[in-house]
Amino acid sequence: MSAHIANGKKYPGASVVEQKGWFAAYKWLILRRISQALFIAVFLVGPLSGFWLVKGNLASSITLDILPLTDPFIMLQSLLAGHVMEQSAIIGALIVTAIYFLLGGRVFCSWVCPVNVISDTATWLRRTLGWNKAGIRLGRKTALWIMAGVLVTSAITGTIAWEFINPITMLHRSIVFGGFASFGLAWVVLAGVFLVELVGGDRIWCSKLCPVGAFYGLLGKFSILKISARKRSACNDCMDCYAICPEAHVISPALKGEKDAKGPIILSGDCTNCARCLDVCSEDVFEFSIRTRNNLDDASFSKEGAEESTKRAA
Amino acid sequence: MTQKQTKHKKVSRRDFLSNAGLAGCGVGLFSLALSSVVSEAKGKLPADAIRPPGAIEEDVFLSACVRCGLCVRDCPYDTLDLAEIGSTSVTGTPFFNARNIPCEMCDDIPCVVACPTGALDKSLNNIDDAKMGVAVLLDHENCLNYLGLRCEVCYRVCPLINEAITLESSANLRTGKHAIFIPTVHSDKCTGCGKCEQSCVLEEAAIKVLPERLALGQMGAHYRLGWEEKRKHGESLIENQHIYDLPDRGYGPSTTEGVAPPSGFPEKTQSGGYKGFKP
Q1: Mutate to test the interface with B, among A74, A79, A159 (most CBs of B within 10 A)
Q2: How far does A131 lie from chain B, in Å, by closest CA?
Q3: Dist. CA B192–CA A150, nearest whole Å
Q4: Which of B30, B66, B69 has the CB atom closest to A160's CB atom?
Q5: Burial A76-109 (b: 16+ CB within 10 A, else e)
Q6: pLDDT given at position A9
Q7: CB distance A127 to A202 below 8 Å
């Protein structure tokens, strides 16, 4: 077994750092941060250089004056509020839905959403300071209730209700349209979400409250790109993936599913495809796959790897 | 997973209904909370925040506008802005302040073209038909033209000069020999672009664009304007009807029998009224 189990204070992924170096343990995280930064940067190219690569913001945008993209959750609220959008927004929402259908619903959460950076930072601080137990615990369905409440409110008030308080679009809009100079109350929103995540409860905003995540989670129940615990037989029970995973409950059915004759794919819509499990696993159990490769024999067993790990364990 | 699934199958009707009730109440609770936030913020639009041309009615605007700012980006004059968090307007929605930068009324209306959602109505294809608001000459005390001077900047800069703003002359009673030219806005022509407000030479503009709801009065639905009805009808509607011609008091110098009324005064009728007088 890896040394860090004995030493409880070690962070998830420590054994990967020891064996394969720092970069291997943070590769996907770095890629995600780059992706999140890009989704802000592409919107800033226009205002800063005058070349309008992407106009708009996360609610609705147009790329190079050709490609429209619209948030389908916002469009759904608008529809319930009694407004049918114009063609370009409808096409945009269909494109976004198709992309997340292919890449995984909550890929939005981990690869696009700027709030994810705040949430990750808060969670890291919680772990570092030993505040893991602080705050309240909410049921996993809470975000779904809130999502339903948003839709009901949209219908009752005749507005796109969530946009009155949505911290995601508020932050993104403030950065893209105001710049940090006139960021104003966006700092308050940012600090609010950070504190809620820090002391409110574990991943409480992103996992338990945010209706946007819940919406994409529903989409994720059907999406194609999934994470597979293909080499689950090589698992050495170090628990690092559970420690790092923002939605730890999604892992077990796939990783420990062999005894229940379950395939290796993480099928839960709650999984954000953040790929941190790929980062922290010293046995390379996880990899990206597609949802159809979920047969028992899709969980391949690398004998060499297994022997190695057994040796190491011994 | 298997465990959960078997558990799932065993959910009793009582448990199911109880859970559904709990979920329903949770949804209701959150809806109430969010509704109160929304209704407080809704309709917060201050009088000096003017929506872009083609904006649909304010009470449905927030069902359509996704606050993406594409109208803001495509405005060549940087007129439009998105309301900042905590500002007096609804967060993230587009508006302009006419005193700062008015609408230049582009022929191709790029802001409306850019709107992906229909919050700005694409059926607006002639900018002269826009109804962003109505200019109102609010201050009759400080407007230079009201004081008898010939400023008229608002009239000169109006893109629909002599249509949306005309100069109505009247006598200057102060000097006794000059005219006063009152800039007069005609709401049927005014687009609310705000060029007048921007260019008003006073420290604080005397003429301002207001949303229609604030700018215009409204007559009772049953009101009829006699002259309009006459024009529509082609002739007076009361010409040949019996009209009570009551004696008037205090209309002119009292006349006694046998004394001729002063010249130029209307002839008396039999009933004691004056000839030619119509109510």
Answers
A1: A159
A2: 28
A3: 35
A4: B66
A5: bbbbbbebebbebbbbbbeebbeebeebbbbbbb
A6: 52
A7: no
Which residue carries 């601080």 as its tokens?
Answer: A125
Q: Please indicate whether, in this complex, the C-beta atoms of A60 and B86 are within 8 angstroms of each other.
A: no
Closest to A295 (Cα-Cα) out of A256, A259, A267, A263: A263
ipTM score for this prediction: 0.80
Q: How many angstroms away from the CA of A139 is the closest CA of chain B?
A: 11
Residue-wise pLDDT tens digits, A219-259: 888 988 888 888 888 888 888 888 888 888 888 888 887 78
Give the number of other CB atoms < 10 A from CB of residue B8.
Answer: 8
In this complex, the residue of A78, A82, A148 whose CB is nearest that of residue B27 is A148
Query: What is the arithmetic mean of pLDDT over B247-268?
Result: 60
**What percentage of chain A has pLDDT greater than the value 90?**
22
Residue pair B248/B273 in contact by the 8 Å Cβ criterion: yes
Single pTM value for the model: 0.79
CA distance A143 to A139: 8
Mean pLDDT of all residues in chain A? 83
Q: Is A146 on the interface with B (CB under 8 A)?
A: yes
Asked whether the beta carbons of residue B34 and residue A150 sit closer than 8 angstroms, the reply is: yes
List CB contacts (< 8 A) between A150 and chain B.
30, 34
B7 has pLDDT over 90: no
Note whether A86 contacts B117, CB cutoff 8 Å.
yes
Q: Which amino acid is at B105?
A: M
> Inter-chain contact B23–A141, Cβ cutoff 8 Å?
yes
Q: From residue A273, how far is each of A181, A207, A220, A224 by CA, in Å?
A: 33, 14, 10, 11
Cα–Cα distance, A206 to A193 (Å, whole number): 9
